Amino acid sequence: MEMAELPAQLLICVLHEPMGIPERFYSMSSNILRTRKNYYDTLEASQKGKLDITTWLKWFLDCLSQAIESANSVLHKARVWEKLQHLNLNERQRKVINILLGNFQGNLTTSKYAKLVKCSQDTALRDIQVLMQYGVMVQSPDGGRSTHYQII
Questions:
Q1: Is pTM beyond 0.85 here?
Q2: Cβ atoms within 10 A of the Cβ of 78, count?
C-alpha cells in the first residue's frame, strides 16, 4: 500500500468497523484507481495550508457512495441471474439481459435487439416472446412502431 493511500484505508476501517460486518461488498480501490489524479490532487490540497481535510472528506464520501452504488448494481444483477438460472435461455437472450442490466439507454425494440445480437428481426421477436413467456420482459402498452420491451 502506498503512503498516499493510507488515509483512505484508515477511513474505510473506521467507517466499516462499527457496522459489525466482517465482509465488505464494495471496492474503494477500484474507484480510487479510476480517479487517481483527482484523489492525489485532493489529498495534496488538503495537506497544504491549514490542513483542512473537508475537501478530501467530501471527495472520499463521494467515492464511497459510488463504490456502494456499483456494488448494489452488481448485487442486483446477481440476484436477477439467480432467479433466471433455471430458464433455458440462449446466448442471444443472455447477452441482451446483461446489456439491459448494465447501462442500456433508451427503449429495447426488436430492431435494437437484432442489432445488439446480430440476428434477424424475426429471430429477435421470437427471442423476446420467449422472454415475455418466462416473465423476464414485458411489452410496453404502446403499440405499432412504438412497441418496446422492458426487463422486469
A1: no
A2: 11
User: Is 2.30.130.10 the CATH number for 91-151?
Assistant: no
Domain spans of the chain, in order of start:
3-84, 91-151
Q: Per-residue DSSP letters for 68-115?
A: HHHHHHHHHHHHHHHHHTTS---HHHHHHHHHHHTT--S-B-HHHHHH
CA-to-CA distance for 22 and 14, rounded, in angstroms? Answer: 13
Mean pLDDT of 7-36: 63
Q: Is 108 helix (H, G, I), strand (E, B) or coil?
A: strand
Q: What is the pLDDT of residues 107-138, one digit of tens each?
A: 999 999 999 999 999 999 999 999 999 999 99
- φ, ψ of residue 37 to 5 degrees: the values are -60, -45
Neighbours of 75 (CB within 10 A): 12
3-state DSSP assignment of residue 23: coil
Overall residue count recorded for the chain in this entry:
152
Q: Is the predicted pLDDT of residue 145 greater than 90, yes or no?
A: no
Residue listed under C-alpha cell 439481459: 97
Most confident of 6-15, 42-51, 55-64: 55-64
